[in-house]
Specification:
4-stranded antiparallel sheet, alpha/beta, TIM Barrel, Immunoglobulin-like
């Protein structure tokens, strides 16, 4: 049966290669979970078998789950590189914290980003079963459903702090590898989204989540670009809450892969296909995602990270003269004063590595000068809003 499946897949690949062109755009996002969902039997079994920890250890503030999945993550990125697939790596703060403990892991992660993969953010709010312990709830602003989560927040032992503490781990890793974080998949978005995230993804198991036209949404008041994604993930429970065995899980994820294969020729020029799975899924069924990488590669679609799809970026690091969508920033790196040049610019917003806005400029001129001499040396993000969309760039202050 499996041989028939791969024969049909190969035939479809041949058709795909002849049909699809570089206008077809696809991103693949990988979610890194906190690993504290104690209802997941496979998660508990892996941790117990490989590390000897009982499931209750997931409720403590440890990084056992990240330790278990790290080697498979390395294998996943190496496999993606084999097929020239660029992943959007949406990291929970726990994985960033784990990587920061080891200089070798930092250097390896840096090599992934330099090779065209994207460093993004993943976060679940208190409503999610795998809440990572961070939230801005109960920080002075009241929300109508607070009473539903107050007990879990105060008494479960899961709480680790407000969102800025979570985002600090990602920003610290970004500083180590001379990068920034502008893309995220964040639940409880209205409450927990850090400043600096301007590309948001969301989706699920419905076919309507597979393809979307990037659009702006106000969250809560600033414009952000939104893209949807379709989950190619296994499930450990059926619709009635019954646990599924490993074979059924495999079939479930494979069926999702078939859906992507059969719909990739439905992408119009102004649309983007979004695919998501978990690093934990790759740990369990690596061959399914290797098939995905191979299929995307053979289909000759335009696969890039989300940031590069939205900005058509050149993956060669920071140039002295950066130009995207007719926007130029120079000199870069800068000693404190730099110029921004381009048509139809409306506003410019500059944020530091912690995501704090340090300067906002409204303008209608084609060229003007920005002075950040008073700021400490480091990396700054420049968000440029034009009549045609948003451009995000890095500037290094030396």
């Amino acid at each position: 049966m499996k041989q028939i499946f791969f024969s049909l897949t190969f035939l479809f690949l041949c058709i795909s290669t002849a049909t699809f062109g570089q206008n077809d755009k696809v991103f693949i996002m990988v979610h890194f979970e906190a690993g504290r969902d104690t209802s997941h039997p496979m998660m508990n079994e892996i941790l117990f078998n490989e590390l000897g920890y009982p499931p209750d250890s997931l409720r403590t503030n440890n990084l056992y789950f990240q330790q278990v999945t790290w080697l498979s993550t390395v294998h996943m990125v190496e496999t993606a590189d084999t097929f020239n697939i660029k992943l959007t790596l949406a990291i929970q703060s726990q994985m960033a914290e784990y990587i920061l403990q080891d200089a070798n892991k930092i250097n390896l992660f840096n090599s992934w980003i330099e090779n065209g993969h994207e460093f993004a953010m993943h976060h679940h709010g208190v409503k999610h079963i795998d809440w990572g312990g961070y939230t801005n709830r109960f920080q002075g602003t009241s929300y109508p459903d607070d009473y539903l989560w107050l007990d879990r927040f105060q008494n479960s032992g899961l709480y680790r702090g407000e969102m800025q503490l979570s985002f600090n781990y990602l920003q610290q890793l970004a500083t180590e590898i001379n990068d920034s974080v502008v893309t995220g998949c964040i639940t409880d978005t209205q409450i927990d989204k850090p400043d600096g995230i301007i590309y948001l993804t969301e989706g699920g198991k419905n076919l309507s989540d597979l393809i979307s036209i990037p659009d702006t949404v106000p969250i809560p008041v600033e414009p952000l670009y939104f893209l949807s994604h379709y989950q190619i993930v296994s499930a450990f429970k059926d619709e009635y809450g019954n646990f599924l065995d490993e074979a059924t899980n495999y079939q479930y994820a494979t069926a999702k892969l078939d859906t992507v294969m059969m719909n990739i020729n439905q992408i119009d020029n102004d649309e983007i296909m979004g695919i998501v799975f978990h690093a934990f899924d790759y740990y369990r069924f690596p061959d399914i995602y290797r098939d995905l990488f191979n299929f995307i590669n053979q289909s000759s679609v335009n696969n890039k990270s989300i940031r590069c799809l939205m900005n058509d970026c050149n993956i060669t690091g920071i140039d002295e003269n950066i130009s995207d969508n007719n926007i130029k920033i120079y000199p870069n790196p800068t000693k404190g004063i730099f110029s921004v040049q381009g048509k139809e610019i409306r506003t410019i917003e500059i944020t530091n590595i912690s995501g704090q806005i340090i300067k906002k400029i409204s303008t209608r001129t084609k060229r003007f000068t920005v002075d950040i001499n008073e700021q400490p040396k480091g990396i700054y993000m420049i968000k440029i809003v034009t009549d045609k969309g948003i451009v995000v760039k890095k500037v290094i202050l030396k």
